[in-house]
Amino acid sequence: MHPDVVSTVDDKVPLADVRLAQADGLDSYRAGRPPAIASVAGLDAKDIGQVADMKLPAGFVAGQKNDGGFGNSGSFQEFHSAGDADVKVFFQYRGHRMSQDASDKFHHLLSEPPHNLRQSEIDQLGEVLEGKSQPTDFQITTAKTQDIHGKRVLVVEGDYLNFGLRSRTLYVDSDGTGSAVQEIAFQAPKDLFNKNVVQGTKSLESINWK
To answer: Which pTM value belongs to this model?
Structure first.
């Protein structure tokens, strides 16, 4: 099984990027505390890392969460469609900082005006993208930087070739250093992704930041 792919709740369907979580600020990171799990009010996800609030797609409910116990400072929070649990939104924090070189490259990328990434730029983001940097495992169809409500983020969309999943992920510089990356993703099996991509994209682009 690919290291970026874990099974769902019923342990039968592969789930990419299930290690999803949130960074709740540099103080928690320095103190070695796991980020706090989000609360949900109605169709809003609230207080997840750098996210103050985000409008979830209609019919979504809270799903898996991990508060980073057992010595793991990473954590995740998942929400999914009540009608199909494979249609998901994730918030992920890895629980560790990237290398200085990777951090500098990510910070520099986000300092430039919004643009579609060149292949040479994608090739420099291996540590940021993790498993998505392997073209035999993940086929990138969109890679760009985009401003969402005043914050510039990296947006990557594509297909997990071995699992029939498609995802659209925001990569967020959590503290301005480029080293602590929060990931926010909409993911579903490819056919369901295409049916729900408008709602999923609107949800991602509804984020209000802290």
So the answer is: 0.80
